[in-house]
Amino acid sequence: MVLSTVLRNGTKDEFIDLMQYTLADKDAMSVDIGSNTLHPGNLHILQGATARQTAIFAVDKNFSPVKLIVQCATCGAHSSFRTIRFTIPQS
User: Fold this and answer.
1) Cα distance between residue 61 and residue 83, in whole Å
2) What domain range is 31 assigned to?
3) Are 88 and 24 in contact, with CB atoms under 8 Å apart?
4) How many structural domains comprise the chain?
5) Residues paired with residue 68 on neighbouring β-strands, in sequence order
């Protein structure tokens, strides 16, 4: 499976944290997308800029994700980043 994301930094500071992505199916079974599969793994997004992250990873052939959960793995209390959940439309 391939995941491609575009992240935008809308804060007044640079974003230099690590992202964590999880896919979940309709039964809430989840697959963590390993940070070792993300390219680039370590983001550095300037204020007002964007960055793209891509991952290629294996999942069971019967896995059909319906949610993508995006978390910041290294954000501290200072960060305004909050976990985001996206619904994946079924085709």
Assistant:
1) 27
2) 2-87
3) no
4) 1
5) 23, 86
| pTM above threshold 0.70 | yes
Q: Using DSSP bridges, classify how beta strands 65-72 and 84-87 pair: parallel, antiparallel or unpaired.
A: antiparallel
What is residue 45's three-state secondary structure? strand
What's the pLDDT tens digit per position in 35-85?
Answer: 999 999 889 999 999 999 999 999 999 999 999 999 999 988 878 888 999
Q: Please state, in angstroms and rounded to a whole number, the distance separating the CA atoms of residues 37 and 6.
A: 16
The verdict on whether omega for the bond into residue 40 sits within 30 degrees of 0, i.e. cis, is yes
State how far the Cα of 19 lies from the Cα of 34, in Å rounded to an integer: 10
- What CATH number is associated with residue 62? 2.60.40
- Quote the CA–CA distance of 68 and 72 in Å, as a whole number: 13
